Amino acid sequence: MLLRPRALALILPTMLAACGSDGAPPPSDSTAQPVAAAAATPAAATYAPGTGPNPTLPAPDKSLIPTVDIAPAVGWPAGAHPNAANGFAVAAFARDFDHPRTLYVLPNGDVLVAETNAPPKPEDGKGIRGAAMKSVMKRAGAGVESANRITLLRDRDGDGVAETRTVFLKDLMSPFGMALVGDTFYVANADAVVKFPYVSGATSIDAAPVKVADLPGGPINHHWTKSLTASADGKTLYVGVGSNSNVAENGMAVEQDRAAVLAVDAASGRTRVFASGIRNPTALAWQPQGGALWAVANERDELGNDLVPDYLTSVKEGAFYGWPYSYYGQHVDDRVKPQNPDLVAKAIAPDYALGSHVAALGLAFYGGDALPARYRNGAFVSLHGSWNRKPKAGYKVVFVPFADGKPSGPMEDVLGGFVDAQGQAQGRPVGVAVDAHGALLVADDVGNTVWRVTPATGAADAAH
Fold first, then answer.
1. Interaxial angle between packed helices 127-139 and 5-18, expressed in degrees from 0 to 180 and rounded to the nearest 10
2. How far apart are CA 340 and CA 275, in angstroms?
C-alpha cells in the first residue's frame, strides 16, 4: 500500500491508534476459532462476495484518508499453532527463523527457506511519510532487517520434523524466488537473477553468484519481491516483477519492465516482457493438467474495502491485465492520468478473484498422494493479509479446486487462526510448497515457523 505524503500527514495519528484494538472484531475466519471444514464443491457453486471466476465488483469508494487496520504482530504463544480445517492436522516442521518468506523443495526432499525482507529504502524512517511507514511495517511484523540467506532443512527420518538445518546460501540481496534446473540453482534477488552450481545432497554452496540478468530494482523499489519459476526444459526463467507504485503516481518511466512477468533466456540473460499489466505477481507455478503458467497477484489500493480483488490467473503470453489504467479487465481507474484507451481495450480479466486486500503471496499446485484425491491438481494459496481493509481479510491458507486445468469451485479454508481474538497477528502465511511426502508446507514470517499440513489420522484413507 502506497500512502501519499498529504494523506500520511492526516492519518498518522489514526494509523498509530489503529495498531491497537479498535473494537471491531476481525472476520470469523481470521480469529483463533477452528477453521470450517473444506466441503466438497456443490453442483451449483456459491462464491463469497468478491471471489470466484466472475466476481461482482462494487463502485469505487474513494476517500481522502486510506483505510488502515493493522493486525499488530505478536507471534505465537508457547505451544500454539494455526488451526487446520477438519480433515487436516498441522505441526511445526521447523521453528526460529528470521522472517521466512518462500519455500522450495529440492528433488532429494531437502527444503529451502528464503529468510528475507525488503532491502533498505532511502525514505526509511525519514520525514512524516518515512516515519509513518516504518511504524506501520514494524507493527505488522514486516520491519525487520533482511537476513539475506537461504536455509536448508532436512528431515532425515521422515517424521515430519527437520533435524538438520544449514545455511545453504548467504549474503544475498533480498532473495525471494528459487528454481533448480539440472545442476544449476537460480535465485531471484531484488535486483537480479543469479545462479550457482548445485550438487545433489549438498547442504551449502560456497561458490560466488553469477549474474544471469538484471531485474528492476533501484532505490525506491516499491515492490521488491521477485517470484521465479523455470520452463519444463529449463531454457527460460519466468520472473514476476511488481510495480513501483500503487497506480503509476510516480510516472510510467519508473515502471519499465515492472508490473509484469518477464521471460529470461537462461543461457544469455536476454529478457523480454512475457505478460504485462499485473500489478504485483507474487508467485508463479505451472498447473499440472493444462501445463499453463499461473500466478497470484496483488491488486491496487485506495478504492475501498471491496476493490480491487487480488487474484489467481493463468498468464498468457503477450496478454495485458490492465494495470495501471484499468482493473479486473476493462474497469477504468480514473485516477491514472493520462489514460490509455487502446491498452484498456486489450485488457483481459483474471481467471479467479481471491477477495480484496487479502495479499495473496504463495501458490502451489498439488501433485502429491498424501492428501485425498480431490486435492490433486488444485491450488493452495496463502493470503498474507493486508492492513488497508476493515474488517481484516486474508491471514489464512486456502484451496482452490481445479478441473481440466481451470478453477472449478469456491475457495476452501485450509489453515487459519493466524489472527487472535484481539485482532493481533500470531502469524502471517507466505510461501507454500508440497514436500516429498505430499504434505503442504507453509512459511510464516511473523511466527518465524515453517508449518506442515497433513491429513488428520485416517482422513486420507477414508477419502480414497
1. 30
2. 17
Residue type, 423: G
464, amino acid identity: H
Closest listed residue to residue 41, CA positions, set 287, 378, 366, 359: 378
Q: Which residues contact 443 (CB under 8 A, 6 or more apart)?
A: 97, 100, 101, 102, 103, 113, 362, 429, 430, 431, 432, 450
Place of cell 503442504: 440
| pLDDT, tens digit, 9 for 90 and up, residues 362-400 | 999 999 999 999 999 999 999 999 877 889 999 999 999
Are residues 382 and 406 in contact, defined by beta-carbon separation less than 8 angstroms? no
Residues 6 or more apart whose CB falls under 8 angstroms from that of 423 comprise 21, 22, 24, 25, 26, 71, 72, 392
Distance between CA atoms of residues 433 and 412, nearest Å: 17
What is the value of pTM for the model shown?
0.89
List alpha helices for 49-170, DSSP H.
127-139
How far is CA 319 from each of CA 20, 190, 230, 311, rounded to the nearest angstrom? 43, 24, 19, 16
What's the chain's Rg over C-alpha atoms?
Answer: 21
Q: How many CA atoms lie within 13 A of 447 on its CB side?
A: 31
Residue 5: is its pLDDT beyond 50?
no
- Cα-flanking dihedrals φ and ψ of residue 337, to 5°? -130, 130
Q: For residue 39, which amino acid is it?
A: A
CB atoms within 10 A of CB 61: 12
Phi, psi of 168 (to 5 degrees): -80, -45
> What is the CB-side half-sphere exposure of residue 67 using CA atoms within 13 A?
21
CATH superfamily of 5-17+68-463: TolB, C-terminal domain (2.120.10.30)
Q: Can you tell me the distance from the alpha carbon of 190 to that of 210, in angstroms, rounded to the nearest whole number?
A: 15
End-to-end CA distance of the chain: 44
**Phi, psi (degrees; rounded to nearest 5) at 312:** -115, 130
Could you say which DSSP state residue 130 is in? H
208-234, pLDDT tens digit by residue?
Answer: 999 999 999 976 778 999 999 999 999
